[in-house]
Amino acid sequence: MPHLREPGREYILTLSCQDGPGLVYDVSRFLNEFGANIMSSHQLDDRRTGRFFMRIQFDFVGAVPSVDGLVAAFADVAARNKMTFDLVDSATRTRTLIMVSRFGHCLNDLLFRHNMGTLNIDVPVVVSNHPDHAALVQSYGIEYLHLPVTRDTKVHAEAALLDVIAEHDIDLVVLARYMQVLSPETSHALSGRAINIHHSFLPSFKGAKPYHQAHDRGVKLIGATAHYINDDLDEGPIIEQDVVRVDHNLGPDELVAAGRDVETQVLSRAVQWHSERRVFPNGNRTVVFR
């Protein structure tokens, strides 16, 4: 079983701002003054954009201040340096809603990892436009919500989805081979907190049936891409990608089968990194502190 963090002992501070001198010093001095012990620290100065990104995980060996107290105290440092920041207890689990259509391999993998405790998430509900996976999801004690989507019901279905997200206080939406294209309005509402798995190595083979496109082109590598969604189909900031080598012996159906393992691994890593506050939006790209 994975190491279970004791609530109230370890914290994660993430921040971004315009780059400048003394940023690491200011943050380190603040933590030292509170008696914190830095367990890991990652930072990046993006010379192209002039942005600075930082993730620090720390704990306390003595008296432990509250999260609210730390946030209030760090607000002065953040204001001085015009930082956007987040500070959370590392034991806080990301409340996650999973969306799925007929292909269940990514859903099954996420539920298994969630059940084993290897993903820092809680999954209160799974939403699907098909009833196929109800028994699987309910076997984990998780609510399964069937929201059919047609041309006539799409607006109503997406409104219901946003209601469910608000009702369950959802932090992250995972499109685990959910095959409906979300409207620009819904995509915008979920900006930065919805991850999609696309079954190709983007930017190649966008849209439908990418494995068939890959077969037609005779590629020697197929892959998968996990990315945040945005208003443009398959154009959101990329979080993780991977590939597997293939050859001319494999037909389209065999490419589909070969790609499923890659899809599950890529998506689970993206969800894990997001839930551990390792991913930072940076324009149409991301910074990922692994």
From TrEMBL:
Pathway: Purine metabolism; IMP biosynthesis via de novo pathway; formate from 10-formyl-5,6,7,8-tetrahydrofolate: step 1/1. It catalyses: (6R)-10-formyltetrahydrofolate + H2O = (6S)-5,6,7,8-tetrahydrofolate + formate + H(+). Residues 12-93 form the ACT domain. GO terms for molecular function: formyltetrahydrofolate deformylase activity. Keywords: Hydrolase, One-carbon metabolism, Purine biosynthesis. InterPro entries: ACT-like_dom_sf, ACT_dom, Formyl-FH4-Hydrolase_C, Formyl_transf_N, Formyl_transf_N_sf, PurU, PurU_ACT. CDD domains: ACT_F4HF-DF (cd04875), FMT_core_Formyl-FH4-Hydrolase_C (cd08648). Its EC number is 3.5.1.10. GO terms for biological process: 'de novo' IMP biosynthetic process; one-carbon metabolic process. The active site is at residue 234. Pfam families: Formyl_trans_N (PF00551). Catalyzes the hydrolysis of 10-formyltetrahydrofolate (formyl-FH4) to formate and tetrahydrofolate (FH4). Belongs to the PurU family. This is Formyltetrahydrofolate deformylase.
